[in-house]
Q: What sequence folds into this?
């Protein structure tokens, strides 16, 4: 059996730090990302968390195969750096993470886009194991995507192939996205823009959402079930936006299966059937139906994927 790996999933809201051996997550800790304050300030805290994790398992650095980071944004996995990142951890492109890894732990280092990492996790160990053509869509702080085509992980000339599904335009008259484009899927329906989406609703002030300090999708789906008009409108708009994104991805990449994953999939009882029906009704797939599946590892797929990359 190969040595364990230190795997880090840099989410916009939470950073997950795990100790992973092949397809087994021995343990992981979730810490606040504070991504608006940048990554440099967080690195000493990440280092201490890793040291505590190793200590708890009676492991030293020499017992570890390597350290891998699954990061949002555009990632050069060859030069091992973050090229561009969208507001979250905005200082990350200036940081030499491989150097940090060597200085802190003296370990081999690997980095990949977080959605690609999640796709590898599901492809090698989860729901997509038996497929050669796969699209993964993550619903979380933002909307991520990744693609395997003919058993090849798509990266592209500039490392953007397949990962910009959340920035496909579904409303060209829409609001400005933080990527600089207008009417992206993320602008229309994602956690980072949910407060703005809610406040723009004409019935917001009368809604039970109005007094809430934090508006997330768990709250939206719960209040929609309870009949709140604003929550219903936001839920339905979001479902339509995610379905449009899914169809764009299917039309672009011709997969056998679409894997849905991410934190928002906690409301899968509503999301999965809606997107499945929308795709079956509107996607142009004369050969038959794309399989629509929920991922096996909604919280940990990226940890498994980045571990696989280090071991292979």
A:
């Amino acid at each position: 059996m190969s040595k364990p790996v230190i795997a880090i999933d840099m989410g916009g809201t939470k950073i997950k730090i795990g100790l992973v051996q092949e397809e087994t997550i021995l343990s992981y800790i979730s810490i606040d990302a504070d991504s608006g304050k940048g990554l440099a300030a967080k690195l000493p805290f990440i280092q201490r968390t890793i040291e505590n994790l190793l200590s708890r398992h009676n492991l030293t650095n020499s017992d570890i195969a390597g350290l891998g980071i699954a990061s949002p944004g555009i990632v050069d996995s060859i030069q091992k750096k973050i090229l561009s990142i969208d507001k979250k951890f905005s200082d990350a492109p200036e940081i030499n993470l491989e150097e940090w890894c060597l200085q802190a732990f003296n370990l081999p280092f690997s980095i990949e886009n977080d959605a690609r990492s999640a796709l590898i996790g599901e492809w090698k160990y989860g729901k997509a194991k038996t497929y050669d053509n796969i699209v993964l869509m993550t619903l979380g702080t933002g909307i991520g995507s990744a693609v395997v085509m003919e058993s090849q992980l798509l990266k592209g000339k500039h490392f953007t192939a397949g990962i910009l599904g959340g920035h496909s335009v579904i409303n060209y008259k829409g609001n400005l996205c933080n990527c600089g484009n207008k009417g992206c899927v993320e602008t229309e329906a994602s956690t980072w823009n949910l407060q703005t989406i809610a406040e723009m609703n004409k019935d917001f002030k009368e809604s039970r959402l109005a007094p809430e300090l934090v508006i997330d999708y768990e709250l939206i789906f719960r209040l929609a079930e309870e009949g709140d008009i604003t929550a219903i409108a936001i839920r339905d708009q979001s479902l339509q936006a995610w379905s449009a994104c899914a169809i764009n991805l299917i039309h672009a990449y011709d997969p056998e299966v679409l894997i849905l994953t991410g934190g928002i999939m906690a409301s899968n009882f509503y999301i999965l059937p809606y997107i499945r029906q929308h795709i079956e009704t509107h996607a142009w797939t004369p050969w038959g139906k794309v399989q629509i599946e929920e991922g096996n590892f909604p919280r940990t797929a990226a940890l498994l994927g980045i571990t696989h990359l280090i071991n292979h």
User: Anything to note?
Assistant: The mean pLDDT is 95. The radius of gyration is 19 Å. The domain at 5-114 is CATH 3.30.420.40 (Nucleotidyltransferase; domain 5). The longest strand covers residues 24-32.
